[in-house]
Write a structure and sequence with these properties.
about 150 residues; alpha+beta; Alpha-D-Glucose-1,6-Bisphosphate, Chain A, domain 4; 7 strands
């Protein structure tokens, strides 16, 4: 039996919509704001396009986590949806960007987790940890965009 958990979070980024979306979609920039990312390798399809499959490798403490990313849909103007699969976890992430005005962009993220095993136990008893981690990465991205013209 798998456990499902869905939540949404949002932040505001003090930067133009164009700058935010360009930085978000630039895969070469991911290491600048995803502090635990070791590598990002396209294994199927065209890099950064819908249908592409990527192998992501993260260092989480002393553990190495390999994750499979499948880009489900991408509209550089507003949205990007992908699934992320690792041992015991499958996560669909829907990213949506909205231009508030010339120098302010809202970033909305909806996560849908399906967990089993130890990840299921964590999701049941500490669901706030998942949301906290999502917000941490969102704020790292925000800081990266706002501090790099």
């Amino acid at each position: 039996m798998r456990y499902a958990m869905v939540y949404s979070v949002s932040i505001e980024i003090q930067a133009s919509f164009q700058k935010v979306t360009q930085r978000f979609l630039d895969l070469d920039q991911q290491k600048n704001w995803q502090e635990n990312l070791l590598s990002h390798e396209t294994v199927e399809g065209v890099r950064g396009m819908a249908g592409s499959v990527n192998k992501l490798r993260y260092q989480m403490g002393k553990r190495i986590i390999d994750m499979r990313e499948t880009i489900l849909s991408i509209n550089p103007e507003t949205t990007m949806s992908a699934t992320y699969e690792a041992k015991g976890v499958c996560n669909q992430v829907d990213n949506r960007f909205i231009a508030v005005h010339d120098a302010l962009t809202e970033w909305h993220v909806t996560n849908e987790f399906y967990c089993k095993g130890m990840a299921q136990i964590m999701a049941i008893f500490t669901p706030w940890l998942f949301k906290k981690e999502t917000l941490r990465y969102m704020n790292l991205f925000k800081e990266f965009v706002e501090k790099n013209p």
